[in-house]
Amino acid sequence: MSRLVRASAALMLTGAFTVPLAPAAGAAPMEPAGDTAFTLSLLHANDPESQLLAASGQEDFGGAARFTTLVNELRAAEESGALAGADEAEDRGVVTVNSGDMYLPGPEFAASREDGAPFYDAVAARYAGYDAVSMGNHEFDFGPDVYAEFIEQLPDVPVVAANVDVSKEPSLAALEEAGRIAPSTVVETGGEQVGIVGALYPPLATITSPRGVVVEDLVAPVQAEVDRLDAAGVDKIIMISHLQNITYEERVARELTGIDAIVSGGGHEVMANADDALVPGDEVTVHPDTGQPLSYPLLATNPDGETVPIVTAGSNYKYVGLLVLNFDAEGNVTSVSDRSGAVRVSGTGDDAVAPHPEVEAQVTKPVSDHVAELAETVVAQSDVDLNGVQNPGVRTQETNLGNLVADGLLDTGVRNAAQYGVPEPQIGIQNGGGIRNASVLPAGPLTALDTYAVAPFANQVAVVPDLPRSQIKELLEQGVAAAPAASGAFMQVAGVNFAYDPERTAQVAAADGTITTPGERVRNVILHDGTVIVEDGEVVDGDPVTVVTNDFSARGGDLYPFRGADYTVVGSTYQGALERLVTGTLDGRITEAAYPEGGSGRIVVGEEATVPEPGTGPSPSPSPSPSPSPTDGPTAGPTEEPSGKPSDPASQSPKPGNGNGSLPKTGTAVLGLVAAAVVAAGAGGAALYLGRKRKAAPADGAAPDA
């Protein structure tokens, strides 16, 4: 079915299971142009991730409104053949697809969770005119029911996934019954049939919470669906898949037959040719195996010796991919047009496009207004400066803001434990590298947008049940292994006090969490209920301990030695947990007594831990419903960068202080916080908007009139 013929044999893979091909240059057809019977223009995108307003830090690029205009202009040009090359056929068609991650937790997504608001990401997708979309991992960040809501607001666009079983989730099963979710779809274009098969990352449950959704290893079910389409006479087949990185797509391409091209999602790779203009700040991704930049397309060879082009288009509405495939009369691909490549979404310069007026009115304006509202929405009043400076600060020592974020994890873990069938956690662990505001939040009003600045990633609250006490010590050892040097692995904790000696042997952990050098720094560990876990550096025998952390750490981020322990995400991002803590459990008031400057003695240097006072920390009451209004979820795809890498103003090293001017402070000016929200969304999204309507902070902490 698929035989991509290239002029140079050097561009072909040598076998179906060899090492990946170095990225190829543009193709020239081997056969005469007259042998081209049909030209298919494939417009593709992936990972828009609710970046609806503009590319992060690049206001003149990206954005759903400009993206929509560009897609529509390209579709019209491809249908008319206005830009066709000599190798292309007069008979032509156009298909438009997206490979998933249609939305992502963050300030812009939060606009869709307001009472009466539409799903703005679905509104934007409707105007883009997709013929099919794939499932992505982030679609499940709030659980199957929210995903079903999104699909319901995206009428007439099939969601394709050949290796996904949704039968145990009623809301999604109903959509499957109605034909809205299917293994594949067939699009009629230019008098030809084009099959589109979907595939999703098999270990989906390790990076999000699909609940009852089951994802199978994809090769067998995808091949079965391709074979079914082939038997039905469909001789042009595209796979749109969300497999998290393009090397996974390569492996799959070398194992499947009958697929003419693959549109990849989840990896955010920038793939382009030398003459393709990029969004400022972007660079073409280097292939991890060959070390060469990913030119467009990447080629792989299937078991039949046929070459399969693989394409992707960055992320966040920054590019539209254009793959132009030439077919012979038997449905074999004979060439890829040289004009294929990445087309950037620009609002400036020679390639500028105007925002689509309907998308501008129905998406851009209300979402912009919502982000501005976040900057004005007070979620709590703080009686004390909250220290989020990184060094010295959350990456070197206990701070009161670190305690607040860790308490948010423990609060949500306890509150949601019953619903998710896990034990109530006793310890909360937040890696310091995940606290990103890099400043002091001054006493006074704390806004919703402040919480996004503190916790900008799409990391989810994850409960890790019943860890041996020896492993608890190893986790704490990892948190202080780099001390006194600053490290993103330095942990802020809840539910536990501990003492450590930085002069003693530091623990060394391998990439898989195996301890190669045992640590001797952690000397004394006491839970807030008075249970002693470590005494004089030795683990005290006793019951296992349940930990709540974020899913980045639970997966072994910062070399935390969880070592593949099972964990369950419990219905909230860490930003959502922080906001729920301050608005609910703390009733809108952050007191100096509970969160004193310098911390409350949870982490001390020495031999003896501070003895917890009765009732230390917030005490949520478990509830039958999860803290935030949406359900399940987590992240992936870029959640958190390695937290030891400074990518923000945190490289400064201010002197310790108590808010008297020796530390930078973050104000609450609307414009500054709106900018912070855009940065937060670009950093990987961040969290749910708790409830569909916010409540003002209580008396004396009431939000000022907007």
TrEMBL record:
Pfam families, alphabetized: 5_nucleotid_C
Residue spans of biased composition, Polar residues class: 649-665
Record keyword Transmembrane present: yes
Parts of the chain that traverse the membrane: 669-690
Superkingdom: Bacteria
Listed InterPro entries: 5'-Nucleotdase_C, 5'-Nucleotdase_C_sf, 5'-Nucleotdase_CS, 5_nucleotidase/apyrase, Metallo-depent_PP-like
5'-Nucleotidase C-terminal domain span: 378-561
Signal peptide extent: 1-24
Compositionally biased residues, Pro residues: 615-631
UniProt keyword terms in alphabetical order: Hydrolase, Membrane, Nucleotide-binding, Signal, Transmembrane, Transmembrane helix
PANTHER family associated with the record: 5'-NUCLEOTIDASE, 5'-NUCLEOTIDASE-RELATED
Family named by the database record: Belongs to the 5'-nucleotidase family.
Protein name (Swiss-Prot/TrEMBL): 5'-nucleotidase C-terminal domain-containing protein
